[in-house]
Amino acid sequence: MEGELASLGQFIGAGFAAIGSGLAAIGVGNVAGNFLAGALRNPSAAGGQTATLFIGLAFAEALGIFAFLVALLLMFAV
Predict the structure, then answer these.
(1) HEC profile for 29-69?
(2) What is the pTM (predicted TM-score) of this model?
(3) Residue 20 contacts by C-beta under 8 Å, 6 or more apart in sequence?
(4) Which of 33, 56, 67, 71 has fewest C-beta within 10 Å?
């Protein structure tokens, strides 16, 4: 019985950690949407902000990858 509860706790924790992947997708959409809104308002400045866009996308996606890694570690390594 005790092993079953520990296994259940692993999967619940992995599920909570996997929520971070969905939130990262929301963050990527937010970054891209704000860039697009700014680029449409001032097209001449959009070229200079492209590097900042990619850095923001990389940071948001890295958080999703870390959350996925934590979920996998909770499911299979603990």
Answers:
(1) HHHHHHHHHHHHHCHHHHHHHHHHHHHHHHHHHHHHHHHHH
(2) 0.74
(3) 63, 64, 66, 67, 68, 70, 71
(4) 33
Number of domains, the chain: 1
Written as six digits, the tokens of 48 are 């200079």
CA atoms of 51 and 41, how far apart (whole Å): 18
Write out the chain's pLDDT in tens, 78 residues. 667 887 888 888 888 888 888 888 898 999 999 999 999 999 998 888 899 899 989 998 898 899 888 888 888 887
Output the furthest CA–CA distance in the chain (Å, rounded). Answer: 65
**Sign of the CA dihedral with 58 first, then 60, 66, and 72 last:** negative
Query: Residue 35 belongs to what domain range?
Result: 2-77
CATH number at residue 20: 1.20.20.10
